[in-house]
Design brief:
membrane, transmembrane helix, O-antigen_ligase-rel_domated, two-stranded antiparallel ribbon, mainly alpha, ligase activity, 19 helices, Lipid A core-O-antigen ligase
Length: 427
């Protein structure tokens, strides 16, 4: 039996210093409170909760300003943090460098700046806020957003709004955004249930997300939601010791890979049946057509791509065809990996895939080391979104909480494994 303690308890010296400040008449608003407000703002902006409220752009501008001020306030501490975080920042460097050969340099420069700032915000959060705090805030933020969206479908307290692909879903910009938020909310609710020792309640709350998936009508969301079926046993067995954890992870991976293989061998067209129930066609609502054009673009510029985010900003036969026959307002390939290769080619693929592999390995080792709910959350958050990236742009994307969580998972897992050295602020 292995004793596991999930909450990260702050050192006594920090508590006493805060207490002395309050007793001496100092400010009650501590650095911890400021950091938590910063995290909540990032979670609300990164999950799209504030999109329909018109606060998305001001929220990111505020985050940009706070981030730059924090990094400049103590440049020595910032330099030490960024030096350790270089693997997380390398994909941003490649994205910014692609401005030099981009088919639309201003767009690439602007979007790569946004990607870099998104990553710097993630690094700042992970270097200042404990892993379990981030887990709780992101989980509750997604859950609140989904609840408000479902409530809006019943009461309609938000005015009707439209997107090129149809009516906006609740407080989110598109049905796919609602679908991704619903999966992440369900994952978070299951996690918090185990974290607060209310596992049954957490699973019931996650089950309540299923009607919202029906609103989103997303086949990819149903697939990633199903991954929770192997996540729950991993959390349940985590306290049985190191061997049981290894068995649980091995079982999860076997299920994750063998079930689709068994379905394929059996000849059952599970995907076709799911698409038929959702009223979608065999092209995944045009995704296969879009992917085919994306693969052609990769072959045309395999080394450095056409520039991060630049493909959809210039006229081309592929773009005109896609907009005419698939989706009028499309500006991504509905596949993070194709988007990455089109924008940054092999250079981007090597750096970003290298980061993804490092994150997964670190999170696996973190879970095997202490078996905490927090480590399980980050491991499966990464795995779920790696699967989701096959049908939507959820990573390597600016202003995305999912991209931020991958960067934060690398730091949090490194801290737990002793491979990240916290840098105290200069007094």
């Amino acid at each position: 039996m292995t004793l596991t303690v999930d909450p990260d308890t702050p050192p006594p010296r920090t508590r006493h210093s805060v207490l002395r400040r309050r007793m001496s008449g100092g400010w009650w608003l501590t650095r911890g409170h400021l950091h938590m407000a910063y995290l909540i703002l990032a979670a609300m902006s990164g999950t799209g909760v504030v999109y329909r409220l018109g606060f998305q752009s001001p929220g990111w501008m505020a985050l940009y300003a706070l981030t730059i001020l924090w990094y400049l306030r103590d440049w020595r501490q910032s330099a030490a943090i960024l030096w350790q975080a270089w693997p997380v920042l390398m994909p941003c460097v490649i994205a910014m460098a692609s401005t030099l050969w981009s088919v639309n340099p201003p767009v690439t420069a602007y979007r790569s700046f946004q990607l870099t700032m998104t990553t710097l915000i993630a690094v700042r959060i992970a270097s200042a806020i404990p892993a379990h705090h981030t887990m709780i805030v992101v989980s509750l933020t997604s859950a609140v957003g989904v609840a408000l969206s479902y409530l809006n479908s019943i009461v309609t307290f938000l005015s009707p709004a439209f997107h090129p692909n149809g009516a906006l879903k609740g407080i989110y910009m598109h049905k796919n955004s609602l679908a991704k938020a619903t999966v992440n909310a369900a994952h978070g609710l299951v996690t918090l249930g185990f974290y607060w020792r209310l596992s049954i309640l957490g699973m019931l709350a996650a089950a309540l997300m299923i009607p919202v998936l029906g609103m989103a009508q997303s086949a990819g969301a149903y697939v990633t939601f199903a991954i929770l079926a192997i996540y729950v046993p991993v959390l349940w067995i985590r306290r049985w010791g190191g061997t049981a954890r290894r068995v649980a992870l091995l079982f999860s991976l076997m299920v994750l890979f063998l079930v689709p293989l068994a379905i394929y061998i059996s000849g059952i067209d599970a995907l076709g049946l799911l698409l038929e129930r959702l009223g979608k066609d065999s092209t995944l609502t045009g995704r296969t057509v879009i992917w085919a054009f994306g693969l052609e673009e990769i072959a045309n510029a395999p080394i450095g791509g056409v520039g991060f985010g630049a493909f959809w900003s210039v006229p081309s036969y592929a773009r005109l065809y896609i907009e005419a026959y698939v989706d009028e307002g499309l500006y991504w390939f509905h596949n993070s990996y194709i988007e990455l290769m089109v924008g940054n080619g092999l250079l981007g693929a090597v750096t970003f895939f290298g980061l993804l592999i490092a994150v997964v390995i670190r999170c696996f080792r973190w879970y095997l080391q202490d078996g905490s709910v927090t480590s399980g959350y980050y491991l499966f958050y990464v795995l779920i979104n790696l699967v989701a990236a096959l049908s939507d742009n959820v990573i390597y994307n600016e202003h995305s909480i999912r991209h931020m969580l991958i960067a934060m998972a690398w730091i949090y897992a490194g801290r737990a494994l002793g491979r990240w050295r916290d840098v105290p602020p200069r007094i």
